[in-house]
Write a structure and sequence with these properties.
The chain is mainly beta. The protein contains six helices and 26 strands. Helix 5 crosses helix 6.
Length: 381
């Protein structure tokens, strides 16, 4: 996998300064440094993955998907955000259910869709200084006006945690209530953030959320139960890029992927696991998967991974590009034409249990312009 491709695809965000928080190098605020490593037996995807399923999304003129921004699985349905404007819902079998909202300026209409969340009763769409609330059936209920220019949202107990794209000196991470009132804000924006896309907030366990600060070793953790923020680091390693080094490189216009040490990105999670990529010396790419409940983690170099599940080179690239989340598993996707080409060139591996299944899926797709195939999987920890 080309390291420049990965770094170009990963979401770039600038650096912040957290005031009033501890930064001591203690075991309590280390993500991976406080866990025990489990070495994978082999690096075949069929050994590393568990519970793999494939779902071909229905393709019609009314549900043709453009450039995918993110995919979430909630309430046994797939919610697909595309082109910063569309939110489409498919059931667990891939059948198209409905489109949520529409572009416009009337009640329940939005000019842009930057993020969304779903709970047991409602769908929340993040627009321009508004959150639009719909029922699961797609009926518009009400708007939540905002005084901040929020770009992403995650539920945090009774409140909502947001990423804010504001002016220099304003808080970047804010806690708001369900009426849109700002309860607390932390992390001051710097000048370079205005050129970056907002990095999503990632769930970590039952009641914690993580905010990754740039490509650095630094995280901000929010505990929804206690309502407290705490700084964290990913690794306890002197070559892991600090937030200060990341900020200096941004300020000097130097390429982050040439940092002579460890940089991090691609943070995502399932219900129980957290995964992210680590690039060493701008060359070696490793994937880390952490299980906080078991206090363990695995890591492995991506260039040594043998994909005998999808047989494609773009599977993990799509995984890193998207802000995906699922109720139980990780999510990626494959374009049907890419999968067909990969299967046609790997006939020697036809003994794989996934090979005939994938051909069956390809043969069932009738349209030349087809929606992607969703791949769900767990890591075998």
């Amino acid at each position: 996998m080309n390291i420049k491709q990965i770094c170009d695809c990963w979401i770039l965000i600038s650096i912040f300064c957290l005031s009033g928080c501890r930064t001591e190098n203690t075991k309590e605020n280390l993500l991976i440094g406080s866990l025990t490593e489990m070495v994978p037996k082999n690096l075949q995807a069929s050994n590393l993955f568990d519970g793999v399923t494939f779902t071909a999304l229905e393709t019609t003129d009314s549900c043709l998907i453009g450039n995918i921004d993110q995919i979430k699985k909630r309430n046994n349905c797939f919610y697909v955000q595309a082109d910063r404007r569309d939110l489409l819902v498919f059931d667990h079998k891939g059948s198209f259910v409905r489109r949520i909202g529409q572009i416009g300026h009337g009640p329940g209409e939005y000019a842009i869709l930057s993020d969304f969340e779903v709970d047991e009763k409602n769908i929340y769409l993040m627009g321009l200084k508004k959150i639009y609330v719909y029922t699961l059936a797609g009926d518009f209920e009400h708007e939540i006006p905002l005084t901040i220019n929020a770009r992403s949202l995650r539920f945090a107990g009774e409140n909502i945690l947001t990423f804010v794209l504001g002016e220099k000196g304003e808080n970047v991470v804010c806690v708001i209530d369900r009426k849109g009132h700002v309860r607390e804000g932390v992390l001051k924006m710097n000048e370079t953030l205005r050129l970056a896309r907002p990095l999503p907030l990632v769930n970590w366990g039952d009641h914690k959320l993580l905010f990754h600060q740039g490509y650095s070793n630094d995280l901000l953790m929010y505990d929804a139960q206690s309502g407290q923020f705490m700084p964290m680091r990913i690794l306890d390693h002197h070559r892991a890029m600090s937030i200060q080094e990341n900020e200096k490189m941004e300020r000097e216009g130097r390429e982050i992927n040439k940092y002579p040490g460890f940089i991090f990105d691609g943070l995502s999670s399932s219900a129980t696991l957290l995964a992210f990529g680590c690039v060493e010396n701008g060359e070696k790419v490793r994937l880390y998967v952490a299980d906080e409940a078991k206090r363990t983690y695995i890591s492995f170099p991506l260039d040594r991974l043998i994909d005998d599940v999808t047989f494609t080179s773009g599977f993990f690239l799509n995984y890193f590009m998207l802000c995906n989340s699922s109720e139980e598993r990780f999510i990626s996707y494959i374009e049907p034409y890419v999968l067909e080409e990969a299967l046609s060139s790997t006939a020697a591996k036809a003994d794989s249990e996934f090979y005939p299944l994938l051909w069956e899926i390809i043969d069932s797709i009738k349209s030349e312009e087809s929606n992607p195939i969703i791949v769900e999987f767990k890591f075998n920890m």
